[in-house]
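To whoever is covering the structure queue this week,

Two jobs came back overnight. Logging them here so there's a record in the thread.

Job A:
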Amino acid sequence: MALEALDRSLSATAPAPAPAAAGGCSASGCGSSSDQLAHLPEHIRAKVHNHPCFSEEAHHHYARMHVAVAPACNIQCHYCNRKYDCSNESRPGVVSEVLTPEQAVAKTLAVAAEIPQMTVLGIAGPGDPLANPERTLATFRALSEKAPDIKLCVSTNGLALPELVDEICEHNIDHVTITINCVDPEIGAKIYPWIFWNNRRIKGVKAAKILIEQQQRGLQMLCDRGVLVKVNSVLIPGVNDAHLKEVSRVVKEKGAFLHNVMPLIAEPEHGTFYGLMGQRGPSNEELQALQDECAGDMAMMRHCRQCRADAVGMLGEDRGAEFTLDKVAEMDIDYAAAMQRRAEVHAAIEANRAAQRQQRSETFIPITSLKGTMQRRKPQPAPAAAQAARFAVATTGGGVINQHFGHAREFLIYEAAAVGDDVDVRFLAARKVDLYCAGGDTCGDAEDALAKTIRTLEGCTGVLCSKIGIEPWDRLEAAGLVPNGEHAMEPIEDAVAAVYRELLAEGRLDTPAAATALSA
């Protein structure tokens, strides 16, 4: 059933190739991540084109999974409290069951067979994978032999990294994530109370200095060996917020491929030091402002979901409950046949992506006729003086708008702005929300969830989804958000650009002069 559903999704989302035309949203104007990677050498593009964490565009189409084989950690962070039994939390370090390498391999083969768009296996905890090198490397070694079509990734705090770089490269691990929150030991001492180094527990500035030195050595060694490195940094207001721009500069000089500035998660119920001490996390505006400051020649990752250490599925979803050890034990997996099926699915995904990229050379505004057929008219160019606007998008993947408002657990935030005669659309962030509609008669009792969603979407102009009910429509409009369900199954960037133009033409972006110019 899962494969049939995927086939239907691919068939439905693949647009027919459109001829190039003047005006509209150009390939570069739409701000797609495929264009952001176009300057890279072919061998680098090949490594990231289907990696949902290293490529923004790929995360619409491909899934990932983490296996929790590494329970021990060699440092303590003030924002971390590892739990093994909380299935309702989505944050790093949380898992439902710790696996042996053998169990991890069996689970990976099962997931890859059942979710053929899964391309990446990562080990990210619940402790530090390189503080558990035997378990981590045994898992990678077996998967290299049994599932050579799966990319292998590891995430680490970097303390043990330099001594394991050779083994990482031997196991064909082409993608490594290092969490680097500072390059100043004084700041580090406020984040890390201790490290365990050379069989001793070391505290304070001395501990932070050792950690930073090891992180920088490991980063340089990996980059020198051609391994793609993503650097994660946790934004902690009042601690390292003014410092992370320097972190970005340093890791970029070392050769890091991607920088991911993530918001601190510090709810008191998580039991972390920061949570219990009342340390606040950043606002959406603070996070985006810092990401923009850090942006430059090195790409910024803005689509991170801060996944659990046992996450399964597309970014933003977790299908781990479908692959518990007891369920995996009942599955009869023929992985040779599964690899063939996976190759076919990946080819269909790439054909879909190619068609979407071709279609981005022309933006259409769809109009539904009385007979229900889709007609199209050529859009007018947007004025250069128009202001930017943000839109929240509900999607389950595929790079298209294909989710009901009431079924969304997150919204992707895009910003549209006029650039010359084009509309530039860029992805900003993903914002999690509580589920509004759980089916049956429960939707009417979801007022609190809807109110929270509206607060979460603060700063947005409109909401794009495949469908939306009357009650949330009215509530969104009352809150100043423009609901839109007219662009279902259309590529996200095209739809956002079309709605942006529509609102300008209607004078609904508080830019009367710009709207007049558009209508002229």
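Job B:
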Amino acid sequence: MLATAALPFGLSVASAQESTQLERLTVEAESDDTLVQDGYVAQEGRIGTKVDTPIVEIPQAISVVTQDQIEDQKPRTLNEALGYTAGANPNNFGFDSRYDSFYLRGFPTYYTGMFRDGLRQYNGPSAWLRTEPYGIEGLTILKGPASSLYGVGGPGGIVNVVTKRPKDEPFREVELLFGNHDRHQAAFDLSGPANEAGTILYRFTGLGRLADTELPGYLDDRAYFAPALTLKPDEDTSLTILGEYSRSVTGSTAWYHNDSYGKVSDLYAGDPAWNDFVQKQGRIGYEFEHRFNDFLTVRQNVRFHAVDADLKYSGYYPEPPDRSWGHYKEKAKNAVVDNMAQLTFDTGPVQHVAVAGFDYSWSEYEAQSASSLISVGDIAAAPFYFAGGQTMNQYGLYLHDQMTWNNWTFFASGRQDWVDSHSTDYRFVETDQSDSAFSGRIAVSYRTEWGLIPYANYSTSFSPNLGFVYDGVTNEKRVARPTKAEQVEVGVKYEIPDYNAVLSAAYFNIDQRDGVVYDGTFDEAGNQRQRQLDLNARGIELEANASFDNGFGLIASYTYMRMKIEEGAAGTVGNELSATPNHIVSLWGHYDVQDGPLAGLGLGAGLRYVGKSYGDDQNSFENDERFFLDASLSYDFGAANPQFDGLKLQVNAKNLLDERKAVCTAGNCYLDEGRSIFGSLRYRF
């Protein structure tokens, strides 16, 4: 009789002549709960409809940053995660890790377009919620106006952050990361069933980081903890609780001195002795879902979050008094609830999935500040003064119906919003403002027999603007009018048969009225003036996402856009909006060697190109084009030895060629971050 040899996973072989090659078990971090993904390709999500829908069937441009892309590219911020997305531009302010500040289709999106798990994230002027990439399992980017489902919003679209959620199978991960500028980071991610029946699932994600940056006295420290719990008493009911507490310390001053108009120097404007931006943020909420029958499913999503920001900043002047110091504190709070009912039914040959809902949000912030022209010691003891505050209530009723008939899909969405706000400026002048508007979307697509899905849509957006702006003609201060926009979009999506690959193309034309922008000048309180202007954005987006069975993954995008000022300050009408490049190109490829002596080796490389743009709205000078090269190198030890399954070493480089150029927005200029290299060691078990 032959002896039995032990093999991994408790299997055995009973013959010397016959052996079985076991396929390695791949443990994925994503839960595939509200966002179903496979490699670099997202298959199904809720972002465009609030119900689970195949993304290629949604007649609107949608991009997704998947969990695999996040793991391969290792972004440190939300801006970095958007660097390979068509229509997105996170490059307008150089190196600045303080905020998630980005543009979609040429429009600033960081105030009105930030969402987490389908609920709006309201930011104060400086108390912004920050996204920790390690704590998310994807980003969904809905292009163009989205007010018909999500209420107050801008013309460019929204970015929805998908939080890591409990998994129904055991998942455990620990990771250590080290990099230049004394970057040290440790993280863990634990998930799985909490009981034998599998009706209670948990997840606990955490991260600690101590790091410097290329700027003196500018830290990048963070402590992040995110617990999550899912209760599933039966197959028709679920309750998921999502929480977070984080504390981060960055620099408060992220810019270099501008020694003349449109010129940035190598002189850092901050004072390393007074440069901490300490932010604490927390959120707690739940997602409840119950399916009554094939006809009716109800959901309620609730979240409360708070941000406490403390900024110690400074400024540099080439003449006396040479430097100023400031101290600014701001607290922001927000509560939001979204109630919806999903109805599934047929009317003759037409199949319907309809959503009716009501949501409400409340937000407030209050700020205080202090300043000094004397010394760090003086500003540390300086008294605080009231710097402004605001309370806002938003109510929205919405209805969405997606209809399918043969190969046709029709979308119709409508929403009525009411927004009330109470604002108090630094002089204790109070302003009450009420706005209301109807937003809508109609869309159609057709799936051809060879897999192409052409589509078209028309959508509108509405966003109240709180506070005051300066009139572009009279230069007088006045109450800001609401920003409204409308978009026409036509495009095509293509799922390549028998491959995990999607190609898409879209043409868009957006008209915005009364958009708010900074003009590069400052008022008597030292705040940069804002003006309202009419804009037209017109362009083309091309995008490809693929993950093939041979280990190769690809992400490619191209954006051509022209952002024209239709009405604005004297000397700007007919010009292009500053810092809005006509061309943005990105290409990322990643290959995992599948077999042979190099099995387990992973190679990745990416190129980001940002074309020329104007440095101010007068179009008096240009920003140069910029090229950024990124790369990754990894090795999966388990490919060669099953005893090391789950152990992976990875090195990532950002801006490998150390390209550092100036980018100017509204005449204010910034510098790109230089080369950054870091390595990580991850173990999944």
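Note for Job B: The two ends are 36 Å apart (CA to CA).

Please reply-all if you pick these up so we don't duplicate work.
Q.
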